[in-house]
Amino acid sequence: MSVLEIKGLSAGYGRIAVLHNISLAVEEGHVAVLLGANGAGKTTTLRAISGMIKYSGQVLLDGKDLKGLGPDQIARLGVAHGVQGRGTFVDLTVEDNLMVGAFRRKDKVQIAEDVERIYQLFPRLAERRKQKAGSLSGGEQQMLAVGRALMLKPRVMLLDEPSLGLAPVIIDTLYEALQQINRTLGTAMLIVEQNANLALEIANDAYVLETGSMVVTGTAAQVAANDAVRAAYLGH
Ligand code: ATP
């Protein structure tokens, strides 16, 4: 069974229709990437999954229909949404931001172990554990957003353009960490990216949205080899 499945989903804002009958699935332990140009509806898809906007169609987590649940309930069920622009609490320390991520958990010993594991993944966060998140660089804040999402022990992580605005060397560090998280913890991920080359490298499956419709789906290798995708998104 897929961890996350979207079936025939349509959504928008008021009278503006953005997504038209789209379907996608994230399999257990897989990384799926959602590609598309500016305004294609990628962020809107993530908002629908995490219960931030209304939609028609179905969103299933481990086969359970999420319709009607609020963002908080959906997060508790195991959908961690790392928002575009990061969304860390700037006045809290790095460590307190991580603890916020563990809000639904009561296993104190394990929580402490998980914090240490995140510090191993991102040594920069360990060095800055007592610093306020607002004083971190963009790359460090993105690492913190990923770390906080992990503290939820999610079934699936939704990441909205994690590479946005970061220097290439930081992007590499971040993507290496995402790959390591996926491989060692088996966390399923749905990653929205404009940087298609990068995302396809770590993805198992790929989806391409164009003006709210799903136009290409397949394995990451199939999608990377698709001529139209290469011309429009991969630049080669
Ligand atoms: P980007 O990479 O620019 O974030 P995207 O593929 O994530 O693009 P969305 O942010 O999902 O695209 O936006 C899809 C469409 O929905 C756009 O036309 C956008 O203007 C519109 N839209 C997004 N948010 C809202 C909102 N809160 N109210 C009204 N329209 C919105």
Would you summarize the structure shown here?
The protein is 40% helix and 27% strand.
Distance between the termini: 35 Å
What's the tally of helices?
A: 10
Structural class: alpha/beta
The biggest beta sheet reads:
6 strands, mixed
Order of helices and strands: EEEHEEHEHHHHEHEHEEHH
Radius of gyration: 17 Å
Q: How many strand elements?
A: 10
Task: Please indicate the percent range of residues in DSSP E strands (runs of 2 or more).
Answer: 25-35%
Bound small molecules, deduplicated: adenosine-5'-triphosphate
Physical arrangement of strands within the biggest beta sheet: 6-7-8-3-9-10
Shape: globular
The helix content is 40-55%
Could you describe the 3D structure shown?
By secondary structure, the chain is α/β, with parallel strands linked by helices. The chain has 10 helices and 10 strands. It has helices at 42-49, 71-77, 94-101, 108-121, 123-127, 138-151, 168-185, 196-202, 220-225, 227-234, and strands at residues 4-13, 16-26, 31-36, 55-61, 64-65, 79-82, 156-160, 188-193, 205-210, 213-219. A 6-stranded mixed β-sheet has the order 6-7-8-3-9-10, sandwiched between helices. A hairpin with a 2-residue loop joins β9 and β10. It is globular, with a radius of gyration of 17 Å. The chain binds adenosine-5'-triphosphate (ATP).
Spell out the blueprint of helices and strands.
Layout: E1 4-13, E2 16-26, E3 31-36, H1 42-49, E4 55-61, E5 64-65, H2 71-77, E6 79-82, H3 94-101, H4 108-121, H5 123-127, H6 138-151, E7 156-160, H7 168-185, E8 188-193, H8 196-202, E9 205-210, E10 213-219, H9 220-225, H10 227-234
Parallel strand pairs: 3-8, 3-9, 6-7, 7-8
Antiparallel strand pairs: 1-2, 1-4, 4-5, 9-10
Helix pairs in contact: 3-6, 6-7
This protein binds adenosine-5'-triphosphate.
Adenosine-5'-triphosphate binds next to strand 2 and helix 1.
